[in-house]
Here is the input.
Amino acid sequence: MPQITLHDLATKLNISVSTVSKALKGYSDVSAKTRKAVIDLAKELNFTPNIVASNLRTQQTHTIGVIVPTIVHHFFSNVINGIIKEAEKSGYMVILLQSNDNYELEKKQLDLLIKQQVDGILISLSVETTNFEHLEKVQQIGIPLVMYDKISDAIDCSKVLIDDKKAAYEAVSYLIRKGYKNIAYFGASLQAHNFSNRFLGYKQALEEFRIPFDDSLIYICENNDEYNYGYNNAEQLIKDHGFKNVDAVFAVTDVIAVGVSKFFNTHSISIPQDIAVFGFSNWFMSTVVTPALSTVNQPNYELGKKAIEILLEEITLNEAKKEITPQKIILETSLNIREST
Here is the structure.
């Protein structure tokens, strides 16, 4: 059966193609009665937008799709803030979707954004994403794609991120210079590009200061419940080693570090006198917990701002049918040293 088009819907309803298009997009200048008739017929005929035709259009929709692994995380909320503010300045609306670090949901969301005919897509990959055909599809269709934070080198597109390896190396090196030698690593899934690099930075610091790597000090969280993971594995760390044989914890997120601090505080383990704690991302809670948490400061707002700036540049190039040269922008981090170390 031939694919149903906007023209088919318009002919059956005896209205213009532009009215059908506006009705499907929810434009306010189309009456509720007409909009309902269009939507009902579209459902009845299993209408889906023609992707090929949509990419031959000369007009932009002035919408951008943004996929984040999680919205509740302080880091991503600031990234989103940077994206939305810059998008609005340029007259773009943002469709924001949360993948919940789920690969299958991420695929469905990309398909949705394609059907919505967005002008460009920003994505931070889920920790489960190891197959990239859905991203290749976006590029084949001709929609500009920019990755941020959680990226993959398997896709040739622009990327905005920090040097996670360097940031972790600097944090662990600081701990070592302060005299801490037995440093536990509390990490997240090593499938994720940024977390695997933080682990490499931890190992590099140990190697350069000639401290033997001890895999019994490595604790990996394979789910999103970072706070309880930090809390529960701090308990496991003490059971495994006792606080006399561990003098610091380096956590790859502040949420994990806050969970660690909570366990130590409620079990009379003094921070940093007994065990120091170092986090990552400079979440606002890092200044609220007691003692205040030393952490890696990520330029999260700036990361979102830079990612949308690059995407808007590429959208302009795409509309002009000019070649897009992928960029890789690495933003600087810094250490915020507080009472926990």
